[in-house]
Input
Amino acid sequence: MVSAGREQDPTIRQGVMPTSAPTSTLPNDATGVFDGSLSEPAVVAAGTGVAAVVSERSPIKDPPNEDAAAVIPLIGGGVALAVADGCGGHAAGEQAAQIAIRTLFECLHQPGEGEARGAVLDAFERANEAITGLGVGAGTTLAVAIVDAGAVRAYHAGDSEILLIGQRGRVKLQTLAHAPVAYGVEAGVIDPRDAMHHEDRSLISNLLGSAEMRIEVGAAVPLAARDTLILASDGVTDNLRTREIADLIRTGPVDAAARRLRDAAHRRMTNPQPGEPGKPDDLTFVLYRPARPR
Output
């Protein structure tokens, strides 16, 4: 069990990577792989939809951002979205998150690879082996959503969450964080209102970098034209409740929704009001909207 910059023009783009990223650790043609400092949403054409990515370090620390994210077009159509949240010390956590994202990209773009499910599962296994092999106690969460053929399927290990929100705010999909507090809420022994302030909130029980790592695979969930999909590190989910996240992202242009979410999380990290959650941390999320029919 583990206790767990540069502004860019928000116009739609394909294949964006911050120049501050340590590119030697990433694929040379890593389309839409993000690490480093990305405070202003990068808006990326993503398959038949559009994605907005924010990834920045905690407001109270100087070391590098230990999170990473990706928007990866699939060879046969569709798109893979991913968020990784590293742990195990600043350098080790950053490296672990980068390994997870790099390995996912490589597995999804192997010559002849035609089935995303197998490639994603292979990526989890290979990244876990590589991170464990570092021998420095590094680990990372990894949340992956495959959007294809009008549906989304979630894969995850750790407490980075995936939510699918309808335009009216209905939660259509929410992954369960692999963490004692989340399990307690699910079992009904911890009140959801108390979970955000629980003393064990930062503990996670499953992650890459562990011999016991397990991959949770969700069912395919239909994706409606006005839905919003989000993948988020705990910099979001430890500071904003699910209902607050849904209300912030469900309407408006995707870049505007990303800014609202970023700003709300920042307020909680730096100036929480009585009764509100507030935990400074690296902040990373990917928002995705399918293209609306004309």
Summary: The longest helix spans residues 90-108. The chain has a mean pLDDT of 86.
